[in-house]
Amino acid sequence: MTGPDSAAWFRVHRRSVEPRLRLVCFPHAGGTAQLYHGWPSRLPNDIEVLAVRYPGRQDRLSEPCVEDMATLADLVTRALVPYLDLPVALFGHSMGSAVAYEVALRLEARHGTTAARLMVSGRAAPHRARPSGLHEDDDDTLIAGVRSLGSLGSEVFDIPELRELLLPALRADYRLIETYRPNGPAPVRAPIGAYIGDSDPGSGRERASVEAWAELTTAGGFSLRSFPGDHFYLDPCEAELTADIARHLEGVGRNRKIIAFP
User: Is 0.85 surpassed by the pTM of this model?
Assistant: First the structure.
């Protein structure tokens, strides 16, 4: 059973059968839980999808945005605790990859829970990322920088009313991720799977910085797969990406022991 705080943080896509696993999905900078709305229909019916809802957008528009990584990761981890009765896997895209990684660290350190798998998309490893400084630029430059990555959803910034509504969250997210510079990041116990678009202006051209995620797992398991497309390859390649995720999570949570208490 979840409290009101937990309910605010996740859009939970319930399944018709008892889930064996929860897949927690973290959006990119300026992104929303809507990015993952099509995933439940593509994943096995016993995987429950929890899409993270960051403050300052959509139905949390009235709440202040979070502008530092430690605070955001702490809040998401706390909200996730009621869902830890099942194994969890974490997937993050772009900024969401770094947030997912920080949540994985907190789950291990504070709750003794190791994610079944940490999946990172379109993002260099934390110790290899290169901040662009866009969060310090004017609005037009920030939007141009976002558009240079790909076209997913960028047309909303051409509508003055939506531009004014969405810019605060975008700028806050860029401030969060560009000021996130961990010194000697710790490894997680979960295996890590990385994904990139082969024509991504950032990670696709700096493959070595993505491969450096292999240094951040003690599980001895790392994989990297590229898909055709730009930074937002996961939209046109949704079917292929979710199929690969399902393959890696195939055995997780099966034959789980149910303990009955008197």
Answer: yes
